[in-house]
Amino acid sequence: MTQRTLLTGNAAAAWGARLADVDYIPAFPITPQTEIIELLAQWATDGTIAGRFVTMDSEHSMLTAAGAAAATGARVFTATSSQGLLYGFEVLYTIAGWRVPLVLVNVSRALASPITLEADHNDILSARDSGFLQIHTETCQEILDTVLMAYRLAEDQRVMLPVLVNLDGFTLSFTREPVELPAAAAVSEFLPPYQPHHAFIRGDRPMAQGAAVLGGAAYSYFRYQQHLAQEKALAVYEEIAAEFAARFGRYYGLVEPFQLDDAEYVLVMSNAFATKGKAMVQHWRARGVKAGLLRLRVFRPFPAAAIAAALAGRKAVAVIDQNLAPGLGGITYQEIAAALYDRQERPPLVSVIGGLGGKDISQGEFEAVLVALQQAAAGERVPGPWLLYTKPEQERMRTLLQIAGKEVQA
Amino acid sequence: MLRIRFHGRGGQGMKTASRILGSAAFRAGFCVQDSPVYGAERRGAPMAAFTRIDRVQIRERGAIVRPDLVVVADDTLLTDPAAQPLAGCDAESTVLVNSTRDEAALRQEVPAYTGRLLTADFTAVALATTHALASLSTALGVAAACLVGLSLADSLAGLDDELTESHMSMAQKEANRQLAQTVYAQASSWAPVREREDSRIAETAPLVEVTFDPPRLAGPSIYAVGNSPQRRTGNWRQFRPVLQVERCTRCWICFVRCPEAAISLDAQEYPVVDYDECKGCLLCVHECPTHAFTVEKEVR
Predict the structure, then answer these.
(1) Torsion sign across C-alpha atoms A218, A223, A226, A232
(2) Partner of A347 at 20 to 30 A CA spacing, among A215, A261, A359, B126?
(3) pLDDT confidence of residue B254
(4) What is the pLDDT of residues A337-364, one digit of tens each?
(5) Contact: A160, B210; criterion CB under 8 Å
(6) Looking at CA atoms only, how far is residue A336 from chain B in angstroms?
(7) Residues A287, A388 within the same domain
(8) What class has domain B233-297?
(9) Cβ <8 Å between A209 and B222
(10) Same structural domain for residues A229 and A270?
(11) Mean pLDDT score across all residues of chain A
């Protein structure tokens, strides 16, 4: 029976793991770990879920255990956040190289230093070259649905790579909103038990996994195969998304176009703040401005063709990066610019940095972005990366510096 | 450019030999590049080191594919498929082998090789002079320096540069200098290695498109298990432990401690060393409470 209830983003992720009927959940139980793991621990203790829950001494151990368990043929779920993802970082590459299909949820939080708590995407984007597939979510419903789709994608023989599902700390992880819980029977039809064909442990069939290679040619082969599998995952994802929509009535494309059909000015955003961008698009439309939004969802594999098709021919496009690569600029901006490079009708691109450390992007800041889009469309160059930072924020920052005993000029 | 490739086993000092040669050439005013490659570092496992010498800045990196001179520290490597010391050699190459055997005997092992093959027992010379097996690096580094035409003075200067960084005693350093002079005199009887015309024209490589393979192929798993015993490690050994049965109390400590499980027990429960597998670490010699093992230099 389908059920509709209020869930936080954390609970929605845990429900995804529960409905996926996972076999094994290794977890580092301390900060920056999230309620996702608390809820799963509770369910494992009271017998609600059959999967084995084990606490680990670090995210590095947690991810190693997760990858190793997946290599035995178990369906594995785990979760982390920000510094925790970085602490386990080398293992991401390792288990992607093992070609094992687990799902890891990351709750995005800005990275130290300075230490902070709220969301931005430098944590998850640091893992973009690890070999993990990466899907970014905007709503609590999407989190649950994406965990289920992620297992189908990861366990597909044409892909067989682990998947990172991302949700924003606080703005989604602690935020409750209505979520439809699919019936367990319907989920098990969509997501049958994992049947490992290449990496598993069986007493009568010993094997060595994760062998070392030297000389470069063998390494090149294995690493490039990860790329080919990621490329295949684009088409596999679309199959899975279509099937998911047919079964559950919710469709999630590689990217989400919002009011894009006739849009002249387009915002590109991802994760929870895309909701704010959509509200602005509606607001602008009511004013007669032909605005639209493209939300990045599947980030690895990078759907360059879908993005280029959605953006080519627009009057101007603003890529709002909730991340910063110091010395370069916005991370998704670089990839989107590359995707558009060989298109005849490539639009003027504005590189915007907004929402770092969870800083709000106010309506007024969106209005400033629209002005910049209109300038760019008129042929004016808008230098980037352009940090959204308001005068009151700057004044508040000066006050903070004064309180900290620093010499701030009036 | 002169390209010199050293082949040895981990612990035989061929990285140092390549550095002694590199330093000697550097002291003589040449542009030099030297580098080792070990793979997964293990004492006794095959390794290689490379020295390039030129009059102009060297625009090459990594392994030497077509060597002018190959120095082989251990003749068991000649036919080792993991080492392949003669790879890239041709009729114009010079190969210098540290061996107790003569040229004819070695040529029987590598009949396809048509270039110059020099051989001498540098281990014996090194042991006689310094009583330290590690000085094989001095012997072969200086022999190579002589073969590429560097002077004795530059060779000794290069050796000194390397000795400065080592922890050996003054007496050992002096013994190494003596060894260098002995070896240099011996190697002077060989004609020097000549520089060859550099040919930069290569045929375009037959590149292929790497296409998607299913994860059974494209994951680094090995299904053909149990094949590691086919790789015998007995030829890694430079010294062999030999049991003097009359001193053995059958305490089995050697049997328990052998890291390679190369020691088994016979019907009377005396230890037996499997020399096909024993790497010559001599842990058994150090562990034996009754000193029942003696050590013999390996002669093949």
Answers:
(1) negative
(2) A359
(3) 96
(4) 999 999 999 999 999 999 999 999 999 9
(5) no
(6) 26
(7) yes
(8) alpha beta
(9) yes
(10) no
(11) 96
Residue in chain A closest to B223 (alpha carbons) equals A207
The total number of structural domains that make up chain A: 2
Name every residue in B having a CB less than 8 A away from some CB of A. Answer: 39-40, 210-216, 218-223, 225-226
Q: CB A206: neighbour CB atoms within 10 A? A: 11
**Mutant choice from B213, B221, B223, B225 vs A, greatest count of A C-beta within 10 A:** B221
Which residue of A lies nearest to B40 if distances are taken between CA atoms?
Answer: A214
Domain that residue A196 falls in: 3-200+209-248
Q: CA-CA distance, B163 to A171, in Å (whole number)? A: 64
Please indicate, yes or no, if residue A401 is contained in any of the structural domains: no
Q: Is residue A402 part of a domain?
A: no
Looking at A248, A272, A305, the residue that finishes a domain is A248
Among the partner residues A157, A211, A222, nearest to B222 by beta-carbon distance: A211
As a whole number, mean pLDDT of residues B271-289 equals 94
Q: Which long-range contacts (CB under 8 A, 24 or more apart) does A338-343 make?
A: A338/A304, A339/A302, A339/A304, A339/A305, A339/A307, A339/A308, A340/A307, A340/A308, A340/A311, A340/A312, A343/A308, A343/A312
**Which value does ipTM take for this structure?**
0.88
Q: Do A229 and B215 touch (CB under 8 A)?
A: yes
Low-confidence ranges of chain A (pLDDT < 50): none
CA gap A253, A154 in Å, rounded? 17
Tell if the CB–CB gap between B212 and A221 is shorter than 8 Å.
no
Residue A141 sits at the vertex; the CA angle it makes with A140 and A143, to the nearest 5 degrees, is 65
Identify from A159, A198, A200, A234 which residue to disrupt to test chain B contact, counting B C-beta atoms within 10 A and taking the largest count.
A198
Give the nearest partner residue to A225 out of B39, B218, B222, using CB atoms: B218
- Which residue in the block uniquely carries the two structure tokens 């999230």? A34
Compare all CA atoms of chain A with the CA of B224 and give the residue at the minimum distance. A207
- Token representation of residue B222: 């090995």
Token pair listed for A248: 């559950």
The CATH number given to B2-187 is: 3.40.920.10
Hey, which bits of A101-254 come out as E strands?
103-108, 133-136, 163-168, 176-181
Kindly list the residues from chain A whose CB atom is less than 8 angstroms away from the CB atom of residue B45: none
Spatial separation of the C-alpha atoms in residues A354 and A274, rounded to whole Å? 12
What CATH number does the domain containing A284 carry? 3.40.50.920
**Residue of chain A whose Cα is closest to the Cα of B222:** A208
